[in-house]
Structure formats: C-alpha cells, structure tokens
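> Could you send the Zinc-ribbon domain-containing protein prediction when you get a chance?

Sure thing. Input:
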Amino acid sequence: MRCQNCGYDNDMDATFCEKCGSRLDRYSHYGRQPRDVEKTGMSTSTKLLIVAVIALVAILGVFAGAWMMNPAKTPANTPVSANESSEKVTYQADWHQVTSFSGVSDDYRSFQIKGQRFKVVMSATPTLNYNTNFMNVDVSGTSGIIGSGNLNWGPNDDLSSKEKTIEFTAPPGNYYSHVTTKDLQSWNVTVYDYY
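Output:
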C-alpha cells in the first residue's frame, strides 16, 4: 500500500508507513491530493452512476413512446368513428319524346303517357293569303278536354313560323290531340313525357 505522505510502497496489510510512520488509510486524504499518486480513470461509483442515469433515460423513453402510440387514452383526444350507409340508387326524371306528327290540315291522334307530367309542343307556318291563319290543339283525356293551345296570324302579320308549348300535370294513361287549322303551309306537334 502506497503511503500518501511520502509515497513509499508498503506491504498490503501495513497500518503505518515503514519509512515515515504516517498512518496508512485508504481514505485519509482529508481533502488533500497525494503528491505522487498516479491518476487512474473514473471511480467505480461514478461509472455506476452514469450507467444508472442511462438506464433511467432509456426506461423513460420506452414509456413515452408507448404513451404516444396510444393517444386514445389521453382525455384531450376523443375516439373517431365513421358510419357508412347502404347504397341508394337515385333516378333523375327527364323529358322523353313520345310521338311527333305533322300535316297541313286538321288531324286527330292518340298517345300514351307513363309519368305524371307531359307537354305538347306545337309549331306552324302560315300560307301567304292576307287572311287570318291559325292552328289550335285540344288535348283530352277520358273525362274530356284538359287543355288547349293556339297559334294565330293576322292579315298583316309576317309569314314567320311560330311555336308554343303546353304543359300538363296529369296521371299516366291514354290522351288525345285534336289539331284544327286554317290556311297553314305546314304544322308539327311533338309530345314529351316526363318520367
């Protein structure tokens, strides 16, 4: 055992230095550094303290990672859910042409309607006779006339074509159109069904 006072190497079990007589105590520095004592690495207690701190940091990291992976347990977050309804097929009704007919004189036709609405588009061109010209369309069902439309030209009117649309709200079924004319070059009637 090395003497801390004079640096002499004594036997391992010696209590006092054989050279200077100082007490040989492993912890008798009393705050002083021995003169010739060789400096070695870190003490064992320092090494244990560093290992303990590293282990504590690692354990805290594992707990923090587990807590962040499961945010539903925190009171600030509420669970998210989604519900899906079943498929619903929607149909958009549209106008469909049922029939179209034309002529130059009176006419009577029948047509069938599937929907709850239909319309009759009438158009005509008069002849040049400086007289009153007209086209009249009466639409009837089983109970009689449900609506009418007419086009008129006076003696001084231009020979231009005219068009008019008559729209009906009526149940599905059979309907009739009666066309009455006077001095027309041509006329046309088109029926549309809405379903």
